[in-house]
Design goal:
Elements: E1 3-9, H1 30-40, E2 45-50, H2 53-59, E3 67-71, H3 76-86, E4 91-96, H4 104-117, E5 119-125, E6 131-133, E7 138-140, E8 147-156, H5 157-166, H6 173-181, E9 186-188, H7 199-209, E10 213-225, E11 229-231, E12 234-236, E13 240-242, H8 250-263, H9 268-271, H10 284-297, E14 300-310, H11 320-331, E15 338-343, H12 349-352, E16 356-367
Parallel strand pairs: 1-2, 1-4, 2-3, 5-9, 14-15
Antiparallel strand pairs: 4-8, 5-8, 6-7, 10-13, 10-16, 11-12, 14-16
The protein binds magnesium ion.
Residues 219, 221, 244, 250, 253 line the site of magnesium ion (MG).
């Protein structure tokens, strides 16, 4: 059964006071973040329901699955109906783009539930005490019967289409579905799956995306004749090269240790031991990409790198841009997030005497 994500991007942001769907949050809009989560969670195709600026945002996206774009309607119900009419597949995954931190696991669970039970709507039990205030009365509601409805709300396509054709208006798909097909199956949502509605939510999102940890790295390799010199993944013309088990790229080694430190995953000596023949002469860029995969698997991303190469010769300034671009490409981040500097030690120390090159780095990581 194919699942089609219906991504609602037509909100007016009236409670936020600015355009929450189209303003980038650490480089990615809420629309793009939601799209990524739907695809990672198992949507085979997408329908973007847009209006105004969100149409331009969607047009600029690179969408890795088949998709279509339709205009939103007056009310959310009209927008969902337009989306359903343009959708294909047997399962409809209806999601508000403003819930851009939905976990792919939640999307996946809702699709699995819809395949098994016909529906799977994300909901969260209420943990606070909830009261109803009347005229001079206060009544505590039974928490066990209360849920906060989230999205995705996922259904068999034919049933949810019928519900929308006959059901009238609702702020929530599950309510319309229930009128015809009974109470839908619930899957557990999460606090992270918060709808960006007010300025407080926006501040929460920025804090969530700000660096959550930092790590430092340091490395030194001896300069010898008869070896090529690699720094930051770039071959640098020089009469000597660095000695080591791998290509001895001292800069990438310091950067990898900084990233691993931020993630608390040990160090490259532990992960890629120089006693292991498979790492003999290996391109350190391959190792950097492996380290980055470990970061990504934990739903994190490297947010910034700053590094210093300590070296008397050669001059690194001409290669700096290429080095920064190479590192950024391997980490899948913008070159603007990578800074590489070089310094001499004015002829002092082993670096200054040309016996070795050293490097130090700091890395920060954050949630995706
Ligand atoms: Mg090393």
């Amino acid at each position: 059964m194919n699942a089609c994500g219906i991504l609602l991007c037509a909100g007016t942001s009236s409670r936020m006071g600015f355009d929450k769907l189209n303003t980038p949050l650490c480089g990615k809009t809420a629309i793009e973040r939601s799209m990524d989560a739907l695809i990672a969670g198992g949507c085979d195709s997408l329908v973007f329901v847009v209006s105004g600026e969100s149409e331009r945002t969607v047009a600029a996206l690179s969408v890795p699955v088949p998709f279509s774009v339709v205009q939103g309607g007056e009310q959310r119900t009209d927008s969902v109906r337009n989306g359903l009419n343009a959708a294909s597949g047997e399962i409809a995954v209806i999601h508000d783009a403003a819930r851009c931190f939905v976990m792919p696991a939640t999307v996946k669970a809702s699709i699995e539930a819809a395949k098994q039970y016909g529906s799977g709507v994300a909901a969260l039990p209420v943990t606070d005490t909830v009261v109803r205030l009347g005229d001079g009365t206060i009544e505590t509601l039974d928490r066990n019967t209360l849920f906060r409805m989230q999205t995705p709300q996922t259904f068999r396509m034919d049933q949810i289409r019928t519900a929308y054709e006959t059901g009238g208006s609702a702020t929530d798909d599950a309510t319309l579905y229930a009128k015809l097909f009974g109470v839908p199956h619930f899957v557990l949502g999460s606090e992270e799956n918060r709808k960006l509605t007010t300025a407080t939510d926006w501040v929460w999102a920025l804090e969530r995306l700000s660096p959550s940890a930092y790590g430092i790295g340091f490395d030194t390799h001896r300069l010898v004749e008869g070896r090529k010199l690699y720094l930051g993944g770039v071959e640098i013309p020089f009469e000597k090269g660095l000695l080591g088990h791998s290509d001895a790229d001292v800069l990438l080694h310091a950067i990898m240790d900084a990233i691993l430190g931020a993630m608390k995953l040990g160090d490259i000596g532990k992960l890629f031991p120089d006693t292991d023949l498979k790492y003999a002469g290996i391109d350190s860029r391959v190792l950097l990409r492996k380290v980055n995969e470990m970061v990504q698997k934990r739903d994190m991303v490297v947010s910034h790198i700053d590094a210093t190469v300590i070296c008397e010769r050669p001059k690194l300034a001409p290669y700096r841009t290429e080095i920064e671009r190479t590192i950024a490409a391997d980490l899948g981040i913008s070159p603007g997030e990578v800074s590489v500097k070089a310094t001499t030690t004015e002829g002092m120390n082993d670096e200054g005497k040309g016996l070795c090159i050293s490097a130090q780095a700091i890395a920060s990581v954050r949630h995706k």
